[in-house]
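Blinded run. Sample ID left blank on purpose so nobody reads anything into the name before looking at the predicted structure. Input follows.
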Amino acid sequence: MVIKTAKIYMSESKKTKLIYISIFSVIAFVIISWLAISVTKNMLTQKRLQKNSSDFFMKGVDYTQIAEDGSIQNQMQSNQIIHYPVNDTYVFSSPHMTMLDADKHPWKITADHGIGKNNGQEIYLWDNVNITQPIVGTGAQQNAMQVVTSSATIYPQQKKAYTDKPLTIMQAGTLVHAVGAQVDFSTSTVKLLSKVQGQYAQSDGNKK
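Blinded prediction complete.
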């Protein structure tokens, strides 16, 4: 069998047209691919924004938790609360909490910011955190206690607080510095965890 090959001749104008068609095809493919990628990125961005968006907020909040016997268990006030559904968190502005000990004496907890997690079982506070046991009864001024730190986690159901940050305790003329503490509001006790240093201010202003 004899196979003969033939040469195909094409005019210069046809060659030029084919080159242009190939170039336009490549450009069109690149543009379509870019558009598809851009649309996909925009869709993903919109989904992320929707997930990170809040679904409701409240202002001037005053919340009181009542125990089974009808007595007040915990209280919280906040200038504003914003809820984010993606991880079910509550963001507090200037939170102010009140925890009661076994004798119904209050502990006051304030901060600039706060986040509530796990359906309010864990509240993280930061910036200017103050945990204070105010004056109890008549003539008991020396029993007032104030704990100042940069951040702390409050567990309202357990009536406890924890911080691993440096802190200062002021009570009855005594100044104590430490790193880390555990507060039990039920028993009105504070356990210092490390690097404890204290000084006592005498009535004449001298310090030891």
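Unblinding after everyone has recorded impressions. The CA atoms of residues 39 and 45 lie 10 Å apart.
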